[in-house]
Design a protein that fits this description.
The protein is an all-alpha fold. The chain has one domain: Orthogonal Bundle (MetI-like fold). The chain contains 13 helices and no strands. Helix 1 runs antiparallel to helix 13, helix 3 packs across helix 8 and helix 12 packs antiparallel against helix 13. The longest helix has 32 residues. The C terminus is likely disordered.
Length: 290
């Protein structure tokens, strides 16, 4: 017998699927034309020229590399740091509820506010970060003006804002785990690190993969912090593919090339996320039948 709930969610899935397919096909059609805001009404069909142009565009390839680097680094750091914090928050201690409330503050802040806040914190002359470093005898650092440090500074701001999101989801998964296997292991003489490694982490595997999936999607789309804090500088050292697409559209007025960048970024993202999804949900979890 079919689950009666399928009659409720199937129309919604079909509707959004149809809308997504129509929009995607329309964008794909636009990428096959030469569309510029400087030449309205003079669009012409050029085939795959925009895609060939992207393949040989060194600026776009470098931006793609930075996008991949930022996405991988942000996802790994936020998931690991969020897991560690959630494991600490899972214990009973004085002021636990207050700590939880404070931990959620960065999530509710808009990325623009976060970008402006961290831009002031990282100011080379009057920022709090350099003041704290000076107290331990370290010279000032040009956080946003040094090409070798700027991307790390953006990563720092992103980790500060979104690690609490990982903590929130991971804590919910921890609280949903049955305590009997862990208690039985402790009774049998297992140490805390053994309980964590052999019982807790395998049980959290799929939850962590879902969190990583969500954070990877958001990291690829990151735009606000990049635009507010550096706008791709210095010397294009923080220019991601998303930001390059924006510049192509609203600075160079090359709409079709900007859409081509967005389409290629979408394809790469979907392929990577599909692999991650299969790793999380298709492969049998530890203890499950193959």
């Amino acid at each position: 017998m079919k689950d009666p709930t399928t009659y409720f969610y199937r129309p919604v899935v079909l509707f959004f699927g149809a809308v997504s397919a129509v929009v995607t096909l329309y964008v794909l059609w636009l990428t096959l034309h030469n569309i510029s805001l400087l030449r309205p009404g003079q669009e012409k069909f050029i085939g795959v020229d925009n895609y060939l142009r992207l393949v040989f565009d060194s600026r776009a390839l470098n931006a793609l590399g930075r996008t991949a680097l930022f996405t991988v680094a942000a996802t790994i750091v936020e998931v690991i740091l969020g897991l560690l914090i959630s494991l600490l928050m899972d214990r009973e201690f004085l002021g636990k509820k207050i700590a939880r409330a404070i931990l959620l503050v960065p999530i509710v802040m808009t990325p623009i506010v976060v970008g402006l806040t961290w831009r002031f914190l990282l100011d080379p002359s009057s920022g709090m970060m350099n003041y704290l470093l000076s107290r331990v005898g370290i010279g000032p650092v040009d956080w946003l003006g040094n090409p070798n440090v700027a991307l790390f500074s953006l990563l720092l701001a992103d980790v500060w804002q979104w690690t609490p999101f990982v903590v929130l989801l991971t804590m919910a998964s921890l609280e949903a785990l049955p305590g009997d296997p862990q208690n039985a292991a402790r009774v049998d003489g297992a140490r805390e690190w053994q309980v964590l490694w052999y019982i807790t982490l395998p049980a959290l595997k799929r939850a962590l993969m879902v969190v990583a999936l969500i954070r990877a999607i958001d990291s690829v789309k990151a735009f606000d912090i990049f635009y507010i804090m550096t706008r791709g500088g210095p010397a294009l050292s923080t220019e991601t593919l998303n930001l390059y697409g924006y510049i192509s559209a609203f600075t160079n007025f090359d709409i079709s090339y900007s859409l081509t960048i967005a389409m290629v970024l979408t394809i790469f993202t979907n392929v990577a996320l599909l692999l991650l999804y299969n790793l999380a949900f298709k492969a049998p979890a530890k203890g499950e039948a193959s």
